[in-house]
Description:
Blueprint: H1 6-41, E1 47-51, H2 60-71, E2 77-81, H3 83-92, H4 97-105, H5 109-113, E3 135-140, E4 143-144, E5 149-151, H6 154-163, E6 180-186, E7 192-195, H7 200-207, E8 212-214, E9 217-219, E10 222-226, H8 235-241, E11 245-249, H9 264-285, E12 289-291, H10 306-319, H11 321-332, E13 349-358, H12 365-372, E14 378-381, H13 382-394, E15 398-407, E16 412-420, E17 424-433, E18 439-447, E19 454-463, E20 467-474, E21 481-497, E22 500-520, E23 524-539, E24 550-562, E25 573-587, E26 598-610, E27 615-626, E28 638-640, E29 652-653, E30 663-665, E31 667-680, E32 683-695, H14 698-703, E33 708-719, E34 722-731, E35 738-743
Parallel strand pairs: 1-2, 1-11, 2-6, 5-8, 11-12, 13-16, 28-29
Antiparallel strand pairs: 3-4, 3-17, 6-7, 6-10, 9-10, 13-14, 15-16, 17-18, 17-35, 18-19, 19-20, 20-21, 21-22, 22-23, 23-24, 24-25, 25-26, 26-27, 27-31, 28-30, 31-32, 32-33, 33-34, 34-35
Helix pairs in contact: 2-4, 2-10, 3-7, 6-7
Amino acid sequence: MQTSSPNSDHQKKIFIFISICLISLNFFFSISALAQGEHFKTERPKLGLVLSGGGAKGFAHIGAIKVFEEAGLRFDYIGGTSMGSIIGGLYAIGYHPDTMMKIVGSQNWNNLMSDKIPRRFVPIEEKYNVDRFITTFPVRKRKLQMRQGLYNGQLIELLLAHYTSQSYQYETFNKFPTPFLCIGTDLENGESVILDRGILHRALRASMSIPSYFTPVKIDDSFLVDGGVVNNYPVQEVKDLGADIIVGVDVQSGLHRQDQLSSLVKIMDQVTSFYRMDANEKGRKNTDIYIKPDLGTYDVMSFNDHDSIVKLGEAAARKALPQLKKLADSLNAFGRGNFRVLDAKPLDSVFISSVQYRGLKNVSRDFLEGALQINTREWIQMNELTKGILRAYGSGFFETVNFHFLPDIEGVVLVIEVKEASSGILGAGIHYDSDYKVALLLNGTFKNVLYKGSKLFIDLNLGENSRFTGFYLIDRGQKPGFGLRFTTFSLSFNDYDNNNIVDVFRSNQNKLELFTQLSRGKTLQFRTGFEYEYIKIRSNLNPIISDKYNSYLTVFANWLADTYDKSSFPTKGIQLNLKAKYIVPVVKNWDEDFFSNALMFQMRFAKSTPINRRNAFQSVIHAGFTIKDDLPPPQHWFILGGQSQNNYFDGFIPFNGLRFIEEAGLYTLVGAFSWQYNVYRKFYITLKWDLGYIGDDFDEMMRRPDLYSGFGIAFGYDSFIGPVELSLMGSNKNSGMLSFINIGYWF
Length: 747
């Protein structure tokens, strides 16, 4: 047996020691490499942005986003409610805050929030009907119903559809350049609903559907209202998307004190605030950087103060700028994050491969196609599509007309969704003026009565000068239509001689009018037909003209044009009324020795021209003449005086400084000029000057014209019940000053 030497044992010990060291070093480096590997595998924390609801106060989000971009924040998720959903949705699909500011600043928020479409899209026969009612009630299945909301939100949804038009290409909102969600409230069970797929503008419209102000929105099987009712600050929902860090902007005002509940808007806001307080508190606790702009006295309806509100949002975010930059730097150390160029803009045009119509029941597809004027397999400009939608909505046959796109190989499928209007509407209005005195209007408007595309208007005007009107029209779009109108009224007026009242007359008239008409667009109309009048004019002093009715048949042709932008205080557009009529007495009584067949022509042309943002100039020309020496009955004469814009007879011509029906004649030429100044918001001052002639004999009027000149100043306010005006007037025919008061829309 051989034994090892001492040197051999020593070498073995050295070998074992070296092996142990090498194994230890390998283990150490393995652990170190593992640790380093774990470090490199650590992911960048996800950043979420949450924007609360708050109506107009939500414009502050734009200012805050401007600061976020300046700080270099790159958001991975965005969530919002109500106005926060709109600003957040635009940001998510790539709109820059400067672009959003331009969008907000270019809108007429008063019209948007009240669904007041441009007047040029309202059919010419209904333009007078647009602004007459203080309140309306729909009639469905012969039952009077309450509205689901004051407004349908048609214009808001159309605006959102335009600016989010490019989003149709995304199947779900988490495919947006920045994943997005918004919140609605299920009206049936009061639960919060996450909206993260489908049609973006419908989701945004649902999320900001203020209860009782806007009608609810149906999406799938849910009836949705403003998400702010129960969840106005959706922090948890954004965290559930995957956000680790939350930056939030909260524009809610919280609960108001008793002395602050001074308006319906604030009371509605208070009521909805009760249900969301717990969710708000949880959201604030889970927000890492919480920004609360000080919005002072602004409320949810302060849309016209958008400039100031945006600046306050920017100021609040700028206070947190050091903290925001620190967060951005720490996140950017992991990489650039969700970097994108904010250059989104709405589609300019699309290729329509096909069109789908949804919701048509009583209105024909031909009528809707005629209003939209859209051809398939053609490119269409987005602004032309918007005009078509407004033409269809302005017809009055629909409560809403909306659109969206579906992707198609060749272009897009255009989907037109309509909700037909109720079978009828009952409306009420009130008016007072110095000429006609106080009056209450009750109106019934019914569509598709006996014939598709028909309209029936019934007016009952109750007051000192009562009137009833029934008007039935078969509207055939670009084709000739047919109609009839029946009117009966009673009117009192004075007869003047040298500023003295010498008699008081009362006229009672029944008139039936049958006609055919041809319309072009919503602003031009030609109508021809005949009228049958059955009229009595009673004098308080002359018994000869006191107890007999007289009959007249009138054949007429009438050209109308109306492009005024507003019915009250217009700033641009024209109005033209050109009429020719031939009047024939049918049954003669006391007047058989006085009046004969008569051919008459009359014209009224008015033009409003904007001078600048606050000033507008209006000129009006009235002209009328009777052929040869024919003598028409007095209700067809031309009449100067008063300030009434509502004509019971064709020949009424307002004239400053003359009293109601003060001068009459068979020939007239009058020019009226006014300078309108918008003092502040809805307050106006108007300077007026009228100049003209009127007479019974044309040759005499030409040889020795008797010039009438009147002037006046009017102080006006455009209220929710219509214009409120006080006028002071004078003329070269009357001594002293006259006054005139008008309250409410004319009817």
